[in-house]
Amino acid sequence: MSAPDERTTLAPALYAYAEGLRDTAPDAPLPRGGIPLPDSARPPRDPADRISAREARLALPALLRPFLAAPDPERAAVELERALAATHVRERAVFAAVAAVPPPEDPDARGRARTLARRLTRHGTTVRAVAAGLGLLTRLGEPEDVPYLRTLGLLDGLGRHTVTVLEALDRSAAAVLWLVHFALGDALRQVADALAAGDEATARDRLPGLATTPRGLGPEPARRVAEAVDLPALLRREPDRPDLLVTALHLLTRMCTGRNYEPEIRRYEGAVALHEAVAARAHELPPLLDHRARLTTLALGLHSGAAHLLPWPPGRRREVIGIFLDAADEPGSPGRPGSPDGPEDRARADWVRRTARQLRAAAPGESAGPPVPAAAAGTARLRIEVAVSDPGDPEGVETRLLVDGRPLVPEAFDRGPGEPPERLLENGALRAGPEPREVRIAEAYCTEGCCGALHVTVRREGAHVVWDGWRRPGAPAGMPDLPAYRFDAEAYDTELARAERDQSWSWPARRTAWLISAGLRERPGLLARWGLGRGWISTDFRVRDTTVVTFGGPPLKADGTPDTEQGVRQFLWYLPDDGTPPEERAAAALRRLAEEDPRGYANGAG
């Protein structure tokens, strides 16, 4: 076996290896994750010698700096690769540590550092060496590097790093590589294979085959496809392809929604252009209910979601909202496409009508619904709205907070939506009392413990209500600092009282849940008498016409007594809507909770 310092001279350069394989079979489908690396790319290492990512961040900059200043970059590249081979650091940590090192400011030294990066990426034989070169190119890369990166990024283990470098140089190339490595599903992989082979015509023809079901395509794959094919330009070049227009509508809608993670629309440089391209041809869409619902979703996002924050020319955002609503306002008559045929379609059609009516009532640049009291000089204006997502593509219900007309949560915290109204409005969480209180106004789609949340302290200060003391525990670094917002107390109280009373956003099953929750808050003994603790009370995420009441406690034994040795379990009580008025449904549920142990008729969830 070769010694570690000899191995790099015997192994193939990874770029040449990838280029050779691709030239041999340029049209062959690529495996998800990329082309497997040669065995020599990862020299064997003793796990006991491996260092952590934190140790790598501390050690690698000092290792790298002498090579950056070396007068002979080609020789420095060979010596740096040998030095990295002895570090036992994963390539991910190498890339992150090197990318964080500021490049030299002196032009000549900067040029030598760029040459070093290119030698490592084009001639490196190990993933650590190539990862170091890619880390340098994050700040030093130029357009001439793109062809090399396109090929190098096809290799397993280097895709994510190469995508990061290409993001600043060629977003289309970055998107293609991302799809090669991470695309799921046969239809999306077929698009990725055609793009990787440079066959744009085949990729274009395969776009209409992409999944359109709610969970068929996530926000990031949708953005990557749009970037890879330059979707706004494609729509302009192909005016006689209605199937591409429908695909563009689907991809744009998906980018604007979170789908249990985070919207991608603000990461998409072509976001405004794609909105404009779809708006220009929205009238061509068949009046299918699905199309009308997606157009309404886009209008709602422009009004109070992440798309509101895109760089729109003055007044244009409101104009595009109007275009989408006009195109959506074509209800099908009986027997025509778009006519609601069943209860799910009727609920969706009702949501389109109700949401469109609220958005049309919004004055230019302002919020939907009744006018907000004018803000006093030096104070901010608050508007509270409840946004309900398309029932055919559910994301839940969130409370949207608009400060001076701009949505607060997507600007301050992009990892998840605002809290549901049950957590902010039903229980008076936003009311400002004599003592400051901290309120969580948004949580990551996963959990706060995973990806963070947004908290604010609400306090009354004389004639004002102040929001400050912002916290984002668990959120990634780099999010913008938030100022203290000062609201006129009278206007704040008026707006909050209006939002707490307003149930126009709700539907019978949700209203039933709201009333049951209020009843349990007034009568906590209803569950306590059975030794149970209250959980969340809302509607089923997938079956919106079913109320769900959850609670926790020990399960029952066969004789009907609590089995305390089993510990606490969650129970869910499902109440499908049967057409009874919510007030009667809630009263009946509360009576049953008072008379019978709910563990006898609820479902145990473990």
Structure description:
By secondary structure, this protein is an alpha+beta fold. The protein is 47% helix and 11% strand. The chain has helices at 4-10, 14-24, 53-68, 73-85, 91-99, 107-123, 127-140, 146-152, 159-167, 171-182, 186-196, 200-206, 219-229, 231-237, 242-256, 271-281, 289-304, 316-328, 343-360, 408-412, 421-424, 448-451, 489-501, 508-522, 525-528, 582-595; strands at 382-388, 397-403, 406-407, 437-443, 453-461, 464-471, 485-488, 533-539, 546-553, 569-576, 603-604. The chain has a four-stranded antiparallel beta sheet with strand order 4-5-6-7. A hairpin with a 2-residue loop joins strand 2 (397-403) and strand 3 (406-407). The chain is globular.
Summarize the structure.
The chain is of the alpha+beta class. It has helices spanning 4-10, 14-24, 53-68, 73-85, 91-99, 107-123, 127-140, 146-152, 159-167, 171-182, 186-196, 200-206, 219-229, 231-237, 242-256, 271-281, 289-304, 316-328, 343-360, 408-412, 421-424, 448-451, 489-501, 508-522, 525-528, 582-595, and strands at residues 382-388, 397-403, 406-407, 437-443, 453-461, 464-471, 485-488, 533-539, 546-553, 569-576, 603-604. Strand 1 and strand 2 form a beta hairpin.
